[in-house]
Amino acid sequence: MMRAFLVSHWGDDPWSRGSWSLIGRGGTPADRVTLGSAVGVRLRIAGEATHPDRAGMAHGAYEKGREAGLWAADLGHRRVAVVGAGMAGLAAARQLTRLGVHAEVFEARDRLGGRTAGRDLDGFRFDLGANWLQQYAGNALARIAERLGLRTVPTDFADPMVLRGAPAPEGLDVDAQRRLAAAPADASIADVVDAWLREPAPWTPADIQRFADAEIIMDSGAPLSWLSARHGFEPGVGEGDRWIAGSYRLLVDHLARGLTVHLSSPVSHVSAGPEGVLVGGSRFDAAIVTVPVGVLKAGTLAFVPPLPQGHRDALSRLGMGRVEKVVLRFDEHFWPVSRSGYYRIHGPGAGDICEWLDATGADGVPTLVGLFAGPWLASLWNGTDADIAQRAASIVRDAVA
């Protein structure tokens, strides 16, 4: 019996509008660099979307926030506004404060952490947002977690237990990467997959489609017709990933300690001029904006004057995927034990895909954390959170029956 649950709503969150940034057809990692380049001497955009190598990851956001903080301090600014209290915003403000610069963080939500979202459930804390310390060996946040003595648990994404469906044949991933890299610059992943399906040998069409569902749609949460063939399937997952027992909130609380943060304070305008930058009704020497790409594209935050054309062009080629999450707590551990701690389920319908982390190791209570992506979210994520959680639990139960 299910005893407790949490359900994410990143697609509906007005301060996120998706899960993480992606590169659309015609775009390249250079667009990320352009978006993160300084606008004169008083404005800079920072966050995971501006990192050419670590996009979509919390430590990528942290690195770019820290870099933006150094930029503002090096220019001699003494008062800096930081828009957004996610990993990038906290890193920027912490760096500025360390260097003796007065920093104020403006956060639209009533909590810290942005797309990290540690939530209390049934006596423990779990992540509804960013879950893993990825690229662990080179992850700056992992080093902080180690210094704090946080307990981390490895996950082997490369070896999921497939509860329903079939794993991809050996070598298919290499073939996919070769085809995507050789695609025209303006091609989408769908263009490549469609051509591949017409001449699938030595694979079967079902092999190819399962791979696209499990490795691309699940990792992006975006339509293959929109994703850049060359750059829409970015690396990062499966490089020593670990999750934090107790959630990312342990890192968030540490990074926020001593900072000046205004919660429930959405910023609608950032106005830069010769005398400074107006943010939240106050004047600052500079502003660092760390809101997600989805918010930038929605236009709910206006820049005066508008961002330069190069920044706007880069932003037009970036977007957000949607991957939703459930955390389910049970009275009994009814699913098989996986060596990797990770599971994959194909179905019940064609193209339906979800993946699951066994988080029982957090506190010994049987717990699954499920990730869902793809077109079926339109129907699956309807109704109350209890409805969604029950549907998700049924998918696991049916897969192991």
Mean pLDDT: 96
Helix content: 25-40%
Low-confidence blocks of residues: none
Strand content: 15-25%
Descriptive report:
- It is a single chain.
- This protein has 401 residues and is α/β, with parallel strands linked by helices.
- The chain contains twelve helices and 22 strands.
- A six-stranded mixed beta sheet has the order 1-19-22-21-20-10, sandwiched between helices. A five-stranded parallel beta sheet has the order 3-16-4-5-12, covered by helices on one side. A four-stranded mixed beta sheet has the order 15-14-13-17, with no helix packed on it.
- The chain starts with a strand and ends with a helix.
Protein topology:
Layout: E1 2-7, E2 21-23, H1 29-35, E3 43-45, H2 58-74, E4 79-83, H3 87-98, E5 102-106, E6 118-121, E7 124-127, E8 132-133, H4 140-148, E9 152-154, E10 161-164, H5 172-181, H6 189-198, H7 205-220, E11 242-244, H8 249-256, E12 260-262, E13 269-273, E14 276-279, E15 282-284, E16 286-289, H9 293-298, E17 302-304, H10 309-316, E18 318-320, E19 324-330, E20 342-346, E21 353-358, E22 367-373, H11 377-380, H12 385-400
Parallel strand pairs: 3-16, 4-5, 4-16, 5-12, 10-20, 13-17
Antiparallel strand pairs: 1-19, 2-18, 6-7, 8-11, 9-11, 13-14, 14-15, 19-22, 20-21, 21-22
Helix pairs in contact: 1-10, 2-3, 6-7
